Amino acid sequence: MKTLTELRARIIRFYNSADIYILPAIKFITAFLLLFAINNNYGYMESLNNIFIVVILSVVCAFLPLTGTVAISLIYIVIHCFGISVEVGLFAACLYLLLFILVIRFVVKDSIAIIIAPFAFKYYVPSVIPVSLGMLGKISSALTAVTAVVSAYFLKELPSIAVMTQNEDFSNLEILNALIDGIVNNAEMIMNCIVFAAVVIIVCLIRKLCTTYGWMISAIVGNGIYILLSIVGSFFLDIEINILFVIIGAVISLFINLVIAFFKFNAVYSGSRYLQFEDDDYYYYVKVIPKAKASFTDEYDEDDDSEELYFMSEDEIMPERPAYSRNLNSRPVQNQNPDPQKFNTRVNVSDMPTSSVKPQVSGDTRILNKPSGQNNEK
Questions:
Q1: How far, in Å, CA of 290 to CA of 260, rounded?
Q2: Model pTM?
Q3: Contact 90, 109 (CB under 8 A)
Q4: How far apart are CA 119 and CA 58, in angstroms?
Q5: How many H helices and E strands in the chain?
Q6: Which of 58, 125, 141, 171 is the most exposed place for a label (fewest CB within 10 A)?
Q7: Are 27 and 61 in contact (CB under 8 A)?
């Protein structure tokens, strides 16, 4: 565990030292993978199936907030829907506009889940969406989870709709009815909406409890609840699911969620303390859990846990002051207990020449990091 903590600290330190370059690179890679996956799975507009367009849009997304990547990806999907037919494109535009007005604009920070959800369903790891939203978001993130499910099942219907448009036996009205039925009358989609919302709420509530290993417990319980509700829901709604794939997907999702918890919330629970204090109106009970920190042997590491508080007197702070100025009306405050935190010195420099006057020391104890090669002397 110590090795992992040191690795985490080094990664975070490296990111903080070069985030001006790393963050745009991460945004570029994220946008490139999303747009490339959209082209591979829903590439009905031939003119967009060009790697040059994907690279250009990814470069633009690198300098935009993450919500900008989501917006460009949704527009990209809508344009591909127009590649199927005008009716499907208009339906997709109206659907995402309605979702934006009702849901997305209230939970913009979680909107990336709407783009990731279709691929999570495709690769049998859908539980990673609600559990991650519950760990990183709020209870309102349940709305994002429901929206992600609707978007995923709409995109899931596109291949069959594309086949219908190529068949002249189906009219435009029948195609629209098939789209609406694929969303409104889809029992599997409704079940997943309920399951996703329930998992987000449960995970979020467990994470907020002042319990030991709350983040890990929330990840484990969230994936377990997803498996349970999926099996029970499929039984009562008469939906055919592959239980083995559900369990394997939940296990993979659990691994991803634990990695998220490790980087987002890494604490040393063995050092937890309980504090109690009060004021005129309330009693306060606080649980304090120290963060896990790595100790490096690097001489210039600012995050070294072995740093000590070093108390310097006035003579050590201003070693170049003339000797006579240290003897003029200067005396230490009387103190029976030579506690370095209570050490105080008054210096009178009024008789000093103007040219040699140093800034007056306030008398407060100076707390500095102890240099690695210096003895701890007062």
A1: 19
A2: 0.69
A3: no
A4: 19
A5: 13, 6
A6: 171
A7: yes
